[in-house]
Design goal:
The complex is a heterodimer of chains A (about 300) and B (about 300). Chain A is an alpha/beta fold and about 300 residues long. Chain A has 11 helices and 9 strands. In chain A, strands 1, 2, 3, 8 and 9 form a 5-stranded parallel sheet that branches. A 4-stranded mixed sheet of chain A has the order 4-5-7-6. In chain A, helix 1 links the parallel strand 1 and strand 2. In chain A, helix 7 packs parallel to helix 9. Chain A starts with about 30 loop residues before the first strand and ends with a helix. Chain B is of the alpha/beta class and about 300 residues long. In chain B, about 40% of the residues lie in helices and about 15% in strands. Chain B has 10 helices and 9 strands. Chain B is globular. Classes of the chains: A alpha/beta (about 300), B alpha/beta (about 300). At the A-B interface, helix 1, helix 4 and helix 9 of A face helix 7 of B.
Chain lengths: ~300, ~300
């Protein structure tokens, strides 16, 4: 299994936002909002990868490592409480080894009916340099680990540290994964072109991702709260015509800091305070879309291609 | 291309941490901490004094704030040295206005270069924290153990001799440690270090020479991080300090005492247009009841005194 190096991901076909088949969410909700906490374990002394160094400094990078570890000692509790207060469940983007390291955190999430999907084994083990069979091994490991510790099926995937190979999506479909979170091309779910089986993309987001907001864009904690509200307002309004998806990807070590949590909690309460909002999980969005909207989307994509043909 | 089998083998995949330095612990499940007078918050102000050599090598990596221009980089050398001449005195004056104790972390070389700075510091109610030798002497795994031992011993001796005080706190340049650093620090009588950024309370580290504590020096609301790394204004820094305090203060009502740590790089917050923000946030914090201020050593002593099983 391999795909050649190309100038296009070849994973989805163009379908413009206007004149798409209407998406209808359960309860006639205008928008599906899902919260995706990345509950991660970064290793102190990870195996070296030929393509990407895990830390900017020689191992052990005490600042990098301990900053992440803050999420598992302190930040996750603040984040979870803010979500509880507004009635949001999480869809956990999970480094699955965390089941072994911190089952206490897994249990707290599972007790709340949160979904678990895989974000690889550790966030310090990238798929760069793996063969397809090696990459399949981490999918199978993820599936088994999540099943063993939570009883849940593995339905979603976010590649560890967003490391991908050209064949990753083909593997996910073969292994029965329903949705990928690695693609940021849309505000609605879309079919993904895979060699066999069926895979969709559920909108995740770089723009709403706390890492990108705080560290890359270097926006303030309060600005993050404002951005979430603005993103919601726009997608909520557009959802009048056809259901939209909004994802808020989180990292407890960042959003769970004391100087950030209140602005975030306020934004969650704002969204939850609207009617016609579906507080969903990634799996629920994926299943609903596959059951009700996938075929119409495939037909629309074919028709859109034919129009130009 | 393929990776070796080791890349898909996980020897540390088991309950707890992937090392033996400290066990995992959930901040919100610990026995409540009690501060003197049943205070909710222990306020820990930490001015930081640094010296970046003009011929800085930056090996194996450059500590944050390090010189970046071709030699001789006068602009950054002097901008940082400003903190040792001017900035710290503005900060000390503010601390004096509020009668606040503080822990001053400083590179040991400053005691040799500027003895009168040490004299000035020791006239205030401050504890000295050893901040390594200078900002170009970073600790890292791979440096010979003897060399690191010498670096730690030398920095402590210099500061202990110059101040006549025990000096039991440590902050590594760039918060960078080697795998051996806590062992070496404990061997030289250092009770606590401030490098690890994973907690809001002290916790015990296992070392080859007995217990050593990690103290929660704030990382994300550090003045240099907010204003220079994240390029946010002094107003925004003050906002975040207050927001941080509000959350910790609220939590303390439910979960027991918290620590409000305020690192202040003298060359960052000690400049004229920023100093009054220091005054503003301290006035805000001290406007609340139930705030007790201490040095790192004092806060840690109270913490240890109130703990039963320190590894809980």
């Amino acid at each position: 299994m391999s795909r050649a190096m190309t100038n296009d991901p070849l994973l989805y076909d163009y379908l413009p936002y206007h004149n798409r088949p209407k998406i209808v969410w359960p309860g006639d909700a205008k928008i599906a909002v899902w919260i995706a906490p990345n509950i991660e374990f970064y290793e102190l002394n990870p195996e070296p990868n030929p393509v990407r160094a895990p830390w900017p400094r020689p191992n052990p990078d005490v600042v990098g490592y301990s900053h992440r570890d803050y999420g598992n000692r302190a930040g996750w509790q603040r984040m979870m409480r803010a979500m509880d207060e507004s009635g949001f469940r999480g869809s956990v983007s999970l480094n699955v080894a965390l089941c072994e390291h911190h089952p206490e955190i897994i249990k707290a999430c599972a007790d709340r009916g949160w979904e678990f999907f895989s974000h690889g084994i550790y966030n310090t083990r990238y798929t760069y340099g793996m063969t397809p069979e090696q990459e399949r091994e981490i999918i199978v490991d993820s599936r088994n680990t999540i099943k063993q510790w939570t009883g849940q099926s593995l339905d979603g995937w976010l590649s560890p540290a967003l490391s991908n190979n050209t064949w990753t999506m083909d593997l996910l479909a073969q292994e029965g994964v329903l949705y990928t979170c690695d693609l940021f091309h849309d505000d609605q779910p879309t079919p993904i072109n895979v060699a066999s089986g069926k895979l969709i993309s559920v909108p995740y987001s770089l723009e709403m991702n706390d890492t990108i907001v705080y560290n890359t864009n270097q926006y303030t904690p309060r600005q993050y709260g404002e951005m979430i509200k603005r993103q919601f307002d726009q997608l909520y309004a557009e959802g009048e015509e056809s259901g939209t998806v909004m994802c808020v990807p989180l990292h407890p070590y960042l959003v769970g800091q004391p100087h950030r949590i209140d602005a975030f909690a306020e934004a969650l309460a704002y969204m939850a305070g609207h009617d016609k909002v579906w507080l969903a999980t990634g799996r629920e969005i994926a299943k609903h879309y596959i059951d009700h909207h996938y075929d119409a989307a495939i037909a629309a994509i074919a028709a859109n291609g034919a129009k130009r043909g | 291309m393929s990776l070796s089998k080791d890349y898909l083998t996980y020897p540390q995949r088991h309950h707890g941490m992937d090392h033996d330095r400290y066990p995992w612990s959930d901040l919100f499940e610990r026995a409540p901490v009690r501060w003197p007078g049943n205070a909710r918050i222990a306020l820990w102000v930490t001015p930081i004094l640094q010296w970046f050599p003009l011929d800085m090598k930056g090996k194996p990596f450059r500590a944050p704030g390090g010189l970046t221009m071709p030699f001789p980089d006068f602009r950054h050398y002097t901008n940082r040295d400003y903190g040792n001449r001017i900035g710290i005195f503005r900060i000390l004056k503010v601390l004096q206005e509020f009668k606040l104790p503080a822990s001053v972390a400083l590179n040991a070389v400053l005691a040799e270069r500027y003895p009168s700075l040490i004299d000035a510091l020791t006239q205030h109610n401050v504890e000295l924290i050893a901040h390594g030798q200078d900002m170009d002497r970073v600790h890292y795994t791979g440096m010979p153990r003897d060399e690191e031992d010498q670096l730690i011993r030398g920095a402590l001796e210099t500061l202990r001799n110059a101040s006549g005080k025990p000096v039991t706190g440590w902050l590594s340049p760039g918060r960078a440690q080697s795998a051996d650093t806590p062992d070496l620090l404990a061997a030289h009588g250092v009770t606590y270090s401030c490098d690890w950024a994973n907690d809001d309370l002290p916790y015990a580290m296992r070392t080859a020479h007995g217990d050593h504590y990690a103290m929660p020096l704030a990382y994300e609301t550090d003045d240099r991080v907010v204003m220079l790394d994240l390029h946010q204004s002094e107003d925004e820094w003050a906002r975040q300090i207050k927001d941080r305090f509000d959350v910790l203060y609220r939590e303390a009502g439910e979960h027991g005492g918290r620590i409000m740590s305020i690192p202040l790089h003298a060359w960052v917050t000690g400049v004229p247009y920023r100093i009054h923000k220091v005054r503003e946030v301290l006035a805000y914090i001290l406007g609340h009841s139930g705030v007790w201020a201490g040095t790192g050593s004092e806060i840690l002593s109270e913490f240890i005194a109130g703990q039963g099983d320190k590894h809980a």
